[in-house]
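pipeline/complex-builder :: batch 7 item 3
reading input block
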Amino acid sequence: MNRISSRHILSISDLMHQDIELILDTADSLKEILARPIKKVPPLRGRTVVNLFFEPSTRTRLSFELAAKRLSADTVSVAAAASSVVKGETLIDTARNVEAMRPDVIVLRHSCSGAPHLMANYVKTAAVINAGDGMNEHPTQALLDLFTVKEHFGRLSGLKVAIIGDIAHSRVAHSDILAFTKMGADVFVSGAATMFPVMIETMGARVVPRPEEAIEGADVVMALRIQKERQGGRSLIPSVREYAAVFGLTSERMRLAKPGAVVMHPGPINRGVEMAPELADGPYSVILDQVTNGVAVRMAILSLILPEDHLTSL
Amino acid sequence: MRPIFLQNARILDPSCDMDEKGHILVVDGKIAGTGGGIAAPEDAVSIDLHGLWAAPGLIDMHVHLREPGEEYKETIETGTAAAAAGGFSAVACMPNTNPVNDSSAVTRFIIERARATGSAKVYPVAAVTKGLKGEELAEFQDLMLAGAIAFSDDGNPVSDPGMMRLALQYATGFGALLISHAEERGLSRGRFLNEGRVSTMLGLSGIPSAAEDIAVFRDVRLAEFVGARLHVAHVSTKGTVDIIREAKAKGVKVTAETAPHYFSLTEDAVIGYNTNAKMNPPLRREEDRLAIIEGLMDCTIDAIATDHAPHSRLEKEIEFELAANGIIGLETAVPLALELFRQSFLSPLDVIRCLSSNPAGILRVKGGSLKAGGDADICVIDPEAEFSVTRENLRSRSCNTPFLGKVLKGRAVLTLLDGLPVHNLLGVVF
């Protein structure tokens, strides 16, 4: 038995409250390893993690690779350009072929929403971890965001979280909305009106048109990148200039937040668009903590998703 | 051929509003008599139906038979076998084959293949525009002479309103029927399911209802303007029902069909990225589903057509965004339509009307009646029989249906085509 209730990590909604608590607690105890001079422990020795990235990624891919290596797993990463996809192989065939080589975990990033769910339906033994699917979800990013916020504030419940940007096309926003609300935080989203998916309230977020309203009294303020590649050929905003003026995160707007509030960003940042250049490096920023924590949280996920009886001790 | 005597049936003949106990006599492939007072000739094959429903052979005015060109999904042979198994004795097949049915040669090919291999009457619907490209009209007169019974670019809308106007206007010269696949592509392109709660939940771009409403409104106004006949295919939205209801009240020559999935399912069926619930137009909200049932109840929607759209695993066992649109429907239409009767929305006679006499009237083809003298195309339905929808039980070459694995109630147990049994679960030897 793995110790979280879901065999795969496809969506935040697959995880129960106690699963998330367990992942965050485990990450907390594993994070210390990253500060050691010798950053390697044996629990996943002999285990294999395959990273299948059908979409470009620097941060997430590196983060998963390092997480696996820190735990002594063997990792192989495949990028789409080098894969069979260009030769016309279906995702299911790719999954079956990869699984035939007996990896323990397949980490999948794909431009199609639901691709990890499809793969999970066809693999028999490997666990599938969603590393971002289309504009659907990016659950491990949300978990590292939870970890970062909890690390900073000591709790999640009762916090006000503001997410500013293109909510409709952001898989990070979807997972964050589900994750923070599940853990008892209040999530406010803001952005241009063209950036809200219909009925986003059903996911638990409150929609406010003015970013000031979202930021006011917030503990956490997260800005999202404008994702031109997912907007379907029509720009959702008249210009970057207008967007930055109305919705960009500035020191002035951050003054509305609660004293001690933090600024987050899932990266990569377009400085001067969704966030004033100085903010990302400013005292509010926990953006690089997010990146560090990403490794710890993914270590926790990898170690928890594998059957316990096969693990050597930490 | 021995005469066939179907006795003790519940006779449902919508062409004369008949719903009564009685018998049907079939002689030489024609209906020789229907009612209570007729008797069997001595040499007849006599079948006691014990109150099962006897209806005109059902007519599905919207199917895709995939032949020519995509025979790995379906052929005229397997598609009409599925039709027969579903109680249909006639189908109208859409022109989006390969090559497209935009020439009399293709129309004749389809008719020939149906004659040689078919288990149902096949009425080809030809393309409105050459290659379904929306640029040049197809040869309506030539196609009609070859046997085309209507025109549609189904699968594609005729996007340019000027071209649609031309098509409707040209059709008036021949009394031809145009079937509109109403979709505003500017709102639907690159989108995959209904825009709503589920699209947001699944992180997929959704198609707003307005994409259909706007296109239906346009085509209805154009038909009104040029005085043409228009049939609206696969109605999926409340907005469309309202527009058609209003147009009918004004006397516009418009008719409409919906498919069983639009009154049986909602967008919820897509949850889990179920590609067998992906079709265009997409499954909508509960309020749309209910509006469609209302539309059937007040005759705003005239016909139930399946939009039978076979696809193989190659098109369906892939990423949702990449998967083909469409589901099969011929073999599940009867049980799903009977649900409307079981839930007291429609009488049995009205269910049969939507599945036989109304489509016959819209397409101006024979059938949809049990009157003496007509072809003996007859469907016997056991409303209580259960049908387990499995790959093995389906006669279609494809099994892309959201009802796969489900047990449905009510099915055709006998289908006669010109007096010949093309589907027979009664265990009777003819």
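note: The radius of gyration of chain A is 19 Å.
queue -> next item
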